[in-house]
């Protein structure tokens, strides 16, 4: 892989990617693109297919259909070239309990040709983690940091983090996210971070992917996605058809309904009835709207980039 | 990968060395006193003079003193030891990675998992071969005086000398590695590997081994233990008159037996069976790990 390929190809491109486990699809028809240099948040409930997607990206799992490429190179399970392109922090930060931190780094050096030992040591020094300490005597936050350090010292252009903070306490979460952001800012690293801790992602991510039920519901630059949605407060009787845009999630109270709608870019200032209230949608509200979206609505809304407006009567997602 | 394999199996290697050391201490103590007694009784010269018969008193005294040390009760229990070593080393090799989730760490480094497994298997198998060979050497050395009275074909001697001891360890190891991949947990994998290993081990020993090569027959000598024929040595079959022949049955005047010089052909055949089973199990493991990609 040459440097100019890194510059041209998107960091990640999935094309109708799917993986079946026996008769159940863990992920289906996943098409998305993540440009180089962003921190992308991958959000979805448990069982949405996040880990399946990540494992196909990094070369732990072979797709059943479609393909995924990292910087223009197709990811293949069992391929050293694929494995070399991605630094990976797995869920729960697996490390060998009876290894010392130095042993873990020795393993990293032994198993990765591009291993950066000085980076690994500088990071643990800065974090105050003793190299001689055994993994089993580290705190959860320290384990997460050692895992992150191993992924970074691999010097891969794509960093993939799977639920890196869900097992951590709030302080450790903050520290972990700060390290991720610092690492990404310094190096132009592309980062994909899967999490259901939505609040932690808001500060971190400039790209957002929402995955539910094995399908991509929403993907694109976080700011564009937010500006493409509105939070409307309308009289309860208002039918969906009268709403300006595609309703994503609707909450009915006694007299009013609050609806997150995707506005139609062709009619950006679409008729908001004078009696209605229209507010910008928050990061968390937006994600929650897509996570709570009913399966029927999710099936008719085309999982597309925000730029590609599908229209409210788009064709059903191929099943 | 070599360092990684060593680091992960270091404590097992140390435990195996400790086991070997304990065996060696036992063997040196017992072996030395056996050698002393053997030469004190001039048994070597006596056996050379009249193989299979003669100097019965000295033989009885010797086997009375040491027989229990190398005898059935002890070695029947010990026959499970190669299986235990094999499953204890083999079961966690993959299962521990799956149990603790560390497979995601191990297999996401820049080493494809099939190579990761192949290197580990090669190194651990090599270690077990060294262990098996060392145990065999120690056991063979200390039992040497007794073996001059009994030959090498008796069950509890044959099973711990030559090639088969190492092959038994490898077979249990191979079964356990495969079971670890299939069951994804160490302890169930140990049990699931040990039971078929023991079953095959006993079936081969008692059903197949007597017929690896067609047994020979001999007409029963006219005088067995009458005065003048000499007294037979306690545990040595007098029917053929040669130390080390393994008598399978005596039917009227016809003695069916396996001759003592078939020890090595039999060892090769039996070790071949267990090494083939090992290769099949390990080959299946590599193939399955490569194929399932998760």
In oligomeric terms, what are we looking at?
A: heterodimer
What portion of residues of chain A belong to β-strands? 25-35%
Please give the CATH class of the largest domain in chain A: Alpha Beta
Number of distinct helices of chain A? 11
What's the mean pLDDT score of chain B? 85
Q: Can you summarize the main beta sheet of chain B?
A: 3 strands, antiparallel
Assign the CATH superfamily of the largest domain in chain A.
Answer: P-loop containing nucleotide triphosphate hydrolases
**Rg of chain B computed from alpha carbons, rounded to a whole number of angstroms:** 23 Å
Strand content of chain B: 5-15%
Q: Using only CA atoms, what is the Rg of chain A?
A: 21 Å
The beta-strand count of chain A equals 14
Shape descriptor of chain A reads elongated
The side-by-side strand order for the widest beta sheet of chain A comes to 6-7-8-3-9-10
Number of structural units classed as domains of chain B: 1
Helix content of chain A: 25-40%
- SSE sequence of chain A, one letter per element: HEEEHEEHEHHHEHEHEEHEEEEHH
Which word captures the global form of chain B? Answer: elongated
What's this model, at a glance?
The complex is a heterodimer of chains A (319) and B (294). Chain A is α/β, with parallel strands linked by helices and 319 residues long.
Describe the structure.
The complex is a heterodimer of chains A (319) and B (294). Chain A is α/β, with parallel strands linked by helices. Chain A has two domains: 3-221, Rossmann fold (3-Layer(aba) Sandwich); 228-300, no CATH class. Chain A has eleven helices and 14 strands. In chain A, helix 5 runs antiparallel to helix 6 and helix 6 (140-153) runs parallel beside helix 7 (170-187). The longest helix of chain A is centred in the middle third of the chain and has 18 residues, at 170-187. Chain B has one domain (12-224, 235-292). Chain B contains eleven helices and three strands, in the order H-H-H-H-H-H-H-H-H-H-E-E-E-H. A three-stranded antiparallel beta sheet of chain B has the order 1-3-2, with no helix packed on it. In chain B, helix 1 runs parallel beside helix 7 and helix 5 runs parallel beside helix 9 (164-183). The model of chain B is unreliable at 225-236 (pLDDT under 50). Chain A binds chain B through residues 55, 58-62, 77-80, 83-84, 86, 88, 90-92, 94-99, 103, 106-108, 110-114, 147, 150, 154, and chain B through 1-4, 7-8, 11, 100-105, 107-114, 290, 293-294.
């Amino acid at each position: 892989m040459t440097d100019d390929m890194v510059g041209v190809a998107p960091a990640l491109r999935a094309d109708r990617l799917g993986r079946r486990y026996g008769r159940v699809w863990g992920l289906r028809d996943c098409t998305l693109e993540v440009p180089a240099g962003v921190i992308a948040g991958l959000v979805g409930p448990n069982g949405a297919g996040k880990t399946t997607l990540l494992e196909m990206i990094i070369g732990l799992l072979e797709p059943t259909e479609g393909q995924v490429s990292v910087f223009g190179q197709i990811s293949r399970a069992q391929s050293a070239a694929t494995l070399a392109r991605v630094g990976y922090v797995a869920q729960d930060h697996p490390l060998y309990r009876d290894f010392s931190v130095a042993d873990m780094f020795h393993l990293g050096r032994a198993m990765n040709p591009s291993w950066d030992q000085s980076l690994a040591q500088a990071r643990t020094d800065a974090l105050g983690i003793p190299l001689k300490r055994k993994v089993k005597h580290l705190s959860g936050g320290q384990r997460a940091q050692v895992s992150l350090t191993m992924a970074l010292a691999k010097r891969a252009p794509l960093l993939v983090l799977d639920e890196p903070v869900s097992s951590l306490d709030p302080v450790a979460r903050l520290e972990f996210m700060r390290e991720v952001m610092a690492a990404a800012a310094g190096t132009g690293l592309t980062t994909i971070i899967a999490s259901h801790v939505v609040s932690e992602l808001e500060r971190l991510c400039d790209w957002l992917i929402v995955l539910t039920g094995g399908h991509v519901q929403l993907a694109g630059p976080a700011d564009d996605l937010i500006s493409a949605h509105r939070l409307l407060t309308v009289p309860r009787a208002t039918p969906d058809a009268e709403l300006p845009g595609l309703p994503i999630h609707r909450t009915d109270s006694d007299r009013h309904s609050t609806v997150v709608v995707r506005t139609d870019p062709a009619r950006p200032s679409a008729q908001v009835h004078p009696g209605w209230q229209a507010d910008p949608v928050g990061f968390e509200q937006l994600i929650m709207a897509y996570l709570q979206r009913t399966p029927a609505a999710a099936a008719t809304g085309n999982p597309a980039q925000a730029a590609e407006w599908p229209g409210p009567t788009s064709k059903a997602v191929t099943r | 990968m070599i360092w990684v394999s060593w680091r992960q199996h270091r404590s097992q290697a140390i435990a195996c060395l400790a086991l070997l050391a304990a065996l060696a201490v036992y063997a040196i103590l017992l072996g030395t006193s056996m050698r002393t007694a053997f030469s004190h009784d001039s048994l070597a010269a006596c056996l050379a003079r009249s193989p299979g018969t003669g100097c019965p008193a000295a033989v009885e005294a010797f086997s009375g003193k040491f027989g229990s040390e190398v005898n059935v009760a002890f070695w029947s229990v010990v026959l499970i030891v190669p299986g235990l070593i094999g499953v204890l080393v083999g079961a966690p090799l993959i299962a521990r990675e799956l149990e603790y989730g560390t497979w995601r760490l191990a297999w996401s480094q820049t080493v494809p998992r099939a190579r990761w497994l192949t290197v580990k298997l090669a190194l651990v198998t090599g270690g077990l071969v060294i262990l098996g060979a060392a145990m065999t050497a120690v056991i063979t050395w200390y039992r040497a005086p007794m073996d001059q009275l009994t030959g090498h074909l008796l069950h509890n001697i044959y099973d711990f000398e030559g090639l088969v001891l190492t092959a038994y360890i490898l077979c249990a190891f191979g079964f356990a590695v495969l079971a670890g991949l299939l069951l994804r947990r160490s302890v169930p994998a140990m049990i699931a590997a040990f039971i078929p290993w023991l079953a095959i081990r006993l079936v081969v020993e008692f059903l197949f081994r007597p017929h690896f090569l067609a047994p020979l027959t001999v007409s029963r000598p006219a005088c067995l233990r009458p005065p003048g024929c000499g007294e037979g040595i306690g545990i040595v079959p007098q029917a053929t008159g040669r130390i080390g022949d393994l008598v399978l049955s005596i039917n009227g005047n016809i003695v069916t037996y396996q001759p003592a010089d078939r020890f090595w052909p039999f060892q090769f055949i039996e070790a071949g069976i267990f090494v083939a089973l090992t290769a099949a199990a390990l080959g299946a493991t590599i193939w399955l790990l490569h194929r399932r990609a998760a």
